[in-house]
Amino acid sequence: MSIERTEIADLGEFGLIERLASKFSLQHKSSRLGIGDDAAIVSPPASHELLVSTDMLMEGVHFDLSYVPLRHLGYKAMAVNISDIAAMNAHVSQVVVSLAMSNRFSVEAIEELYEGMKLACDTYGIDLVGGDTSNSRQGLVISVTAIGFATPEKIVRRSGAQPGDLLCVSGDLGAAYLGLQILEREKQVFMQTPDVQPDLTDFEYVVGRQLKPEPRIDMVERFEKLGIMPSAMIDISDGLASEVLHICKKSNCGAVVFEDHLPIHKDTYDTAEKLNMSVITAVLNGGEDYELLFTIPQKDYQKIELDPFIQIIGHIDKPDKGASVRMRSGQFIDMKAQGWNHF
Amino acid sequence: MSIERTEIADLGEFGLIERLASKFSLQHKSSRLGIGDDAAIVSPPASHELLVSTDMLMEGVHFDLSYVPLRHLGYKAMAVNISDIAAMNAHVSQVVVSLAMSNRFSVEAIEELYEGMKLACDTYGIDLVGGDTSNSRQGLVISVTAIGFATPEKIVRRSGAQPGDLLCVSGDLGAAYLGLQILEREKQVFMQTPDVQPDLTDFEYVVGRQLKPEPRIDMVERFEKLGIMPSAMIDISDGLASEVLHICKKSNCGAVVFEDHLPIHKDTYDTAEKLNMSVITAVLNGGEDYELLFTIPQKDYQKIELDPFIQIIGHIDKPDKGASVRMRSGQFIDMKAQGWNHF
C-alpha cells in the first residue's frame, strides 16, 4: 500500500467518486452510460435474457482486514458475483458496486480496493457502470450487483437435474476453507508474539484459494466446446453439502457423492493433517471454493470422461433416496446444509 | 411490531430466506425467475434499454432506528431507488435486495422491514427477484439495486440541458430535512425525559416527508400526457443546490434559481420558524425530498404553464454564469454542493 495518505474528507463524496471512476472505462458495446447519472444504461443484446445476481461482503463476517489485503478483497468481491452468473452458464458484462467505509480508510486504501476490482473487471471483460459510496460508522461494506446476458436455451438453473445424471465439479474442493484456518492461526500467533513473521510457504496453495478465488467462467466455454449442456448447476460458495442439497431441493431429486471421487488437492490433505482437521468436513461444509457443481445427462458420459477439468463425484438419485456421501468404508452419511448461522 | 419473537438463528439463513421470499410473488411478465437460484432471470422487452441504479442505506448514517419504524425503512429503501430510475424517465420493474443484520433483530422485525418493501413493490408494480442476506457484527445495512426498461428515445439523462431551458421541480422542497430535525429534537427530549411522549401533531407533514418519501414516478406519465420531454433530469436526494450543480456540470451550463419561485409548503415554513432555522438552507442543502428536478425547452412553456404539478423555479444559463440563486433582495448567492461529508 502507498505511504501517501489523503483523507476522504479532503475530496468529499463527489471528488472521491470522480477519482475512482476515472480509472474505469467502458469496454462493452452494450454499456451505453456508466457512472455519473441517476442510473446506468445498458443495451441488452437481441433475444438475450438478463441475469442478475447480488452479494454483500461485511467486514468482520466475510473478511478480516488484518490478513486480507484490500486489493484481494476488491478482486474477490467481483469474483463471487462472476461465479454466480457463471453458475447460470453465462458471463458477467456489467457490475454496480456500493461501498460504505469509515474515515479510518484513506483515499489510497480505497483506491487499492478499486484496483482489485479493476483487475477483476479487466481479467473477465466487465464494465463497472455505477454504484454508491457512503460513510459507515462501523466496518467496511461492499455490495456488488452483477448483470449478464445469455440466450434462453443456454441458461442453466438449479432445477433441471434428473435421476441418473452424473454429478460433477469443475476443480478441487476444501482448500479455501483450510486456507482461512491457516490465516486465522497465523493471526493468533501474531497477536501473541508480534515479532514472529508468519511463514506461509507450505500453505501457498490453500491460502491463495482463500484470498484469490477465480470464478470458473472458463467452464462456460468448455461446455460449449464439449457440446454438452449441464442439466443443473450451482456454484460452491457454502460447501459441497449445502450446494448438493440446493440442487436436490430445486430439482426434486436425491444424490449420492462418493468420498473416493472427491477432488482434493495434495496441499489440502497436508494442511488438514497439520491442522488436525477432517479434510472431508472442509470439502462438505467449508465453502468459498467457488468451483461449479453441475449435473450432466448420462448419455454425455463419453464427452466428459477424459476431460481433465471435470470430475465426476457421484450421481443424481430419486428424491426418496435423500442426499448422502458414500464413504470409503462403505458407510453412507447424510449431507447437511450449513449456510451461515453466526447468530 | 408483533410481540412474538423468533430468533433468526432458529430459522437459519435458508429458512429465513424462504420465509421472506414466500411473501413475494412475480407480477411482471418480464420476470422469468425470482429468488432461489444463483441469479434472477429477466426478459428485456424488445428494443428497450436497461436502466440500473443502486443505493445502500447504513444504520447510524442514513437512518436511526430509534425513530424510524422498520416498515417505513423498507419502503424508503425501495423509494430512493425508484426515484433514481424515475429520474431517467422510466419505471422500475425488478429489484434485488441485500440485507445484513445482527441477532438483535428478531425474525418478526425483519419481516416488518420486508412488509415495507412489499408495500412499495405492490404500490409501484415491482418484482423482488433476488438478494442476499447475511450477518452483521454492527448495524443494519440495506442495499437495493433497481432495474427498469425504457425505449432509447424516452430516456432522460442529466446532460441534455441547454441555455434558455426552464428549470422545474415536481413538488415542494425542504420538508424532509426539517422533518428529520424534528425527529432528532424529539429524540433528544425523550432521552433526557423519557416520560414525556413526543407530540408531532404540528409536524405531521414534514415528518411524513422524511419517513415516507414517495418517488415521483407519476411524472413519467405526466410528461407523456403533456407531450413534453425534459432535456435533463435528476432526483433531489442531496438538496436542490447539489442537484442543480450536477445538471450544470453534466450539461456544461449555468443556472439561475429564483428564491421567490421555490415551492415550499406552509408547514415547512412554520417548522423552520419554530426551529429557528433558515428555510432556504433546508431547500438548497437539506436533501431527501425525492422530487424531480428537470429542464424543459422554452418552446414547451405553454404546455407546463398551468400544470399544478410542475413549478418553474428558474432557467438554464451559459456555462460562464455559474449556478446561483437570485434572492428576493435582488442579491445573487452561489450554489454549493454538499454531498455527504460525514468523515
Please summarize what this structure is:
With 343 residues, chain A is an alpha+beta fold.
Please tell me about this protein's structure.
The structure is a homodimer of 343-residue chains. Chain A is globular. Chain A is 34% helix and 23% strand. In chain A, strand 1 and strand 2 (40-42) form a beta hairpin. Chain A has two domains: 8-154, 60s Ribosomal Protein L30, Chain: A (2-Layer Sandwich); 166-334, Phosphoribosyl-aminoimidazole Synthetase, Chain A, domain 2 (Alpha-Beta Complex), CATH 3.90.650. The longest helix of chain A is centred in the middle third of the chain and has 18 residues, at 107-124. The first copy, chain A, is built from ten helices and 13 strands. Chain A is of the alpha+beta class and 343 residues long. In chain A, the strands form three sheets. A seven-stranded mixed sheet of chain A has the order 8-10-7-11-9-12-13, sandwiched between helices. Chain A has a four-stranded mixed sheet with strand order 3-6-4-5, covered by helices on one side. Chains A and B meet through helix 1, strand 2, strand 3, strand 4 and strand 5 of A and helix 1, strand 2, strand 3, strand 4 and strand 5 of B.
